[in-house]
TrEMBL record:
Superkingdom of the source species: Eukaryota
Keyword Mitochondrion: no
UniProt entry keywords in alphabetical sequence: Chaperone
Family: Belongs to the GrpE family.
Name of the featured protein: GrpE protein homolog, mitochondrial
Source organism (scientific name): Somion occarium
Region (Disordered): 19-55, 127-151
Record-linked InterPro entries: GrpE, GrpE_CC, GrpE_head
Pfam family, one: GrpE
Basic and acidic residues biased stretches: 30-44
KW Lipid metabolism (keyword) present: no
């Protein structure tokens, strides 16, 4: 073989390319594997990507759903607020009805106190004294001189009876509207219900105990209409 023929053979062999398994162009099996991977990725992502119009509609739907949730929460809050307002209005109406006569009853208590003082001003010894007048004539035979036969003690008894009946009737009327008196003598002093007029040391009595009640207290329903005016046992150790 000549030198020229050997050179041409070398050039022809140098132009041939050899591909290894790791380098070079991909084989058909590699392309199939990539196709399967793409299919798996499509399965993982789920449905195909929506169009721009569909994406816009989905975004608007999410916004509207958020507005519905917000409006529903506000509506429930307003409903609860309205129910509370109804309950408060009903309670205030009931309280207004119960305590509508508070001012009138408070002013009327002065009259009750005056009647009570008038009853206490008459000694029990006078009321228990037998009348000096003789037996009164029968009702069917009235005597024109009956009024002249009465003694002053008899007139006093009649007046006391009338005042006592008026006092009792007035208390019954107040009781009908929920106004009740209370006498705290012997109870522990309570500044919310009692008004201390004086303090006095009393042996054998617990300090802070109500010793005497000058004026009865009055309650209207569960409220204090007027505090009782009392005397309190003084603490001698202080």
């Amino acid at each position: 073989m000549s030198r020229a023929q050997a050179f041409q053979l070398y050039r022809s062999l140098a132009g041939v390319r050899y591909y290894s398994e790791g380098n070079g162009q991909p084989s058909e099996s590699a392309e199939a594997k990539k196709g399967e991977e793409k299919k798996d990725e499509a399965k993982d992502t789920g449905a195909p990507q929506p169009s721009p119009a569909e994406a816009e509609c989905l975004e608007k739907l999410k916004v509207k759903e958020a507005e519905v949730v917000d409006l529903t929460g506000r509506l429930r809050y307003l409903q609860a607020d309205f129910l509370n307002l109804q309950r408060n209005a009903a309670r205030e109406k009931e309280q207004t009805k119960d305590f509508a006569i508070s001012r009138f009853a408070s002013d009327l208590l002065e009259t009750v106190d005056v009647l009570a003082i008038a009853l206490k001003s008459v000694p029990q010894s006078v009321l228990q004294t037998p009348s000096a007048e003789g037996p009164s004539p029968p009702p069917e035979q009235p005597s024109p001189s009956t009024s002249q036969q009465k003694t002053p003690e008899a007139y006093l008894k009649d007046l006391h009876t009338g005042v006592e009946m008026t006092h009792r009737l007035l208390l019954q009327t107040l009781f009908k509207y929920g106004v009740k008196p209370f006498d705290p003598t012997g109870d522990k002093f309570d500044p919310n219900r009692h008004e201390a007029l004086y303090q006095a040391p009393v042996p054998g009595k617990e300090p802070g105990t109500v010793l005497d009640c000058q004026k009865d207290g009055y309650m209207i329903k569960d409220r204090v209409l007027r505090a009782a005016q009392v005397g309190v046992v003084q603490d001698t150790q202080s």
